[in-house]
Each structure stands twice: as structure tokens, then as C-alpha cells.
């Protein structure tokens, strides 16, 4: 899949109502901790790649897990998209001016108490990642073509406090992508498969 086809497929399907996402963040006292991430698609050597990071093991929330660039919504952020763009710049040096945000996927709620809004974007020009070691242990990419193959995406039911939850996971090389990140990848892939 080429970048133009990716953009067309993503934008052809109806996206959720984004008024709340783009509006003022006046409800930060919500019980869930609000976060936003950037699902950045980068064309490298003619192949679309998803940008992912591995979190350092010293972090309190989700240590050592694979994630998208992103993080907690701050009061100074204009909206959720601003959160995702700010975090991507802080974590991997991806400047907001170097991305085209295509839209948002529905917010993902985790049983660990987060509500994560993922923004899908394409990277305009090649960039050299600048890693913040306090936030990122590793930067890597995964071919979108690999993720689009359904047999590479798995779901298992797990029980937590008597409630069953679907947990998504995607093995890729030495990496084990699971939880919210894998669920958002699965949602993106199913969204792209509609067309």
C-alpha cells in the first residue's frame, strides 16, 4: 500500500464525532487519566511503516511496554491532538510541522484507568529520531503490510476481577506488542480493510 492509498482508505470511512476531542479540555477531573498518542505512518524506502517505541522499565505506568509516541494530557495542551503532537516531539523528535494529521480513532479505555485518544498521521519528510531516554528505551518501525495481515494480529480473553477482557497482541521480531497499542493497531487495520 502506498501513502496516497493509505490516506484515501483512512479518510473514506466515517470517523467518530470529534467535537469532544477538539474541544477545550475542561473535564480533566474525569476518573480516567486522559492521554493521547500519535499513530504515525512513515514511508521508508517505498514501504509504509508504523512508528513505535518501547517504554523504559523505570516508568511507573506501563514500564517496558511497546507504545505509540504520546502521553498524559496536560492542562496547557489546547486539545488532545496537541497532546499527541507535543509528546511525539518530546519523545522522538518528530516535529508537528512534519506530520499531516488525518483524524482520530475512537478513544480506547484501558482497565488500568486510562482513556487514550489515538490520532492517525502521516510523516511528510524523512527525519532522524531524537530519543528522550527518560521516556523512550527504543525506537523502531513495523511494516504496515505485516500488521494488515490478520494472522499477525491476535486476541485472547483474560479475566480480571471476575470480568473478561479481550487482550490484543502482535508478535513482531523480538518485540511483543500487546494491550492498548495492539488494540489500536487492530482497529486501524480493520478501519483500512473497509475499502
TrEMBL record:
Which positions fall inside the Nudix hydrolase domain?
31-164
Matching entries from Gene3D superfamilies are given as:
Nucleoside Triphosphate Pyrophosphohydrolase
Record's keyword terms, sorted: Hydrolase, Magnesium, Manganese, Metal-binding
- Please give the cofactor(s) recorded in the UniProt entry for this protein: Mg(2+); Mn(2+)
GO terms for molecular function, please? coenzyme A diphosphatase activity; metal ion binding
Write down the InterPro entries for this protein, in alphabetical order: CoAse (IPR045121), NUDIX_hydrolase-like_dom_sf (IPR015797), NUDIX_hydrolase_dom (IPR000086)
User: PANTHER family in the record, alphabetically?
Assistant: MITOCHONDRIAL COENZYME A DIPHOSPHATASE NUDT8 (PTHR12992:SF11), NUDIX HYDROLASE (PTHR12992)
The protein, known as: CoA pyrophosphatase
